[in-house]
């Protein structure tokens, strides 16, 4: 088993769950490669992480809907940090529509960001992890990757694919000192969920408060989850104490999956 580098690449690091993961790892002394489309957001997060303890926070701007950009980002991160042994795939997009009104283009974009980008980043980074006989990979999936839900067929398809990728990679890499797990939250209080609420308002003419309550009722706890809760679970899966957890999909759903 190789010695951990504590060098992490985080996709979707500019906001939401990715930002919270970056801050949590910074507090543990990780050197970070922050990947997303918005340089302004990444610059702000890099500044925050250095304030709380990151020895290094490299900003890498990439359009993760393009596989070649994702692969290039992995190479750049490896070059700048001198190796990567931790990968958190937190970038993701969603949308909702009736199946017969959903577009193929929208499905393809969701698959590109929610599945192909994680695959590309994993593909480029696991070679070094195998050589070091150590690596930690966490994919931010969704409860929609474990069950089907109406009006989000394309999103469900992409997250089911990400869960499948997680399980297959874990099976292949577990003997090499590498763990691959997924965190599967319900609705999280992020920009993505706020966009879902806005769409509900548009489609149903309900108030924003009523639309939010509808999502909150999806869990026995009657609330949206916080990005910090999801990030905390992901960070635990990177720890030495979680070394025996591999190929698992950890739900954050307030008891919905019981």
Structural overview:
The protein has 258 residues and is of the alpha/beta class. The chain has two domains: 7-186 and 226-252, NAD(P)-binding Rossmann-like Domain (Rossmann fold, 3-Layer(aba) Sandwich); 188-224, no CATH class. 48% of the residues lie in helices and 15% in strands. It has helices spanning 16-27, 39-52, 67-81, 104-132, 153-173, 191-204, 208-216, 227-237, and strands at 7-11, 31-36, 57-61, 86-89, 135-140, 178-185, 249-252. It has a seven-stranded parallel β-sheet with strand order 3-2-1-4-5-6-7, with helices on both faces. Helix 5 links the parallel strand 5 and strand 6. The longest helix is centred in the middle third of the chain and has 29 residues, at 104-132. The N and C termini lie far apart (35 Å). The mean pLDDT is 95.
Counting DSSP E segments of at least 2 residues, the number of strands comes to 7
Number of domains: 2
Order of helices and strands: EHEHEHEHEHEHHHE
Radius of gyration: 18 Å
What is the makeup of the main sheet?
7 strands, parallel
- State the secondary-structure class: alpha/beta
Low-confidence region ranges: none
Strand order of the largest sheet: 3-2-1-4-5-6-7
Distance between the termini: 35 Å
Mean pLDDT: 95
CATH class of the largest domain: Alpha Beta
Task: Give the CA-based shape.
Answer: globular
CATH superfamily caption of the largest domain: NAD(P)-binding Rossmann-like Domain
Q: How much helix is in the residues? A: 40-55%
From the 3D coordinates, which CATH architecture of the largest domain would you assign?
Answer: 3-Layer(aba) Sandwich
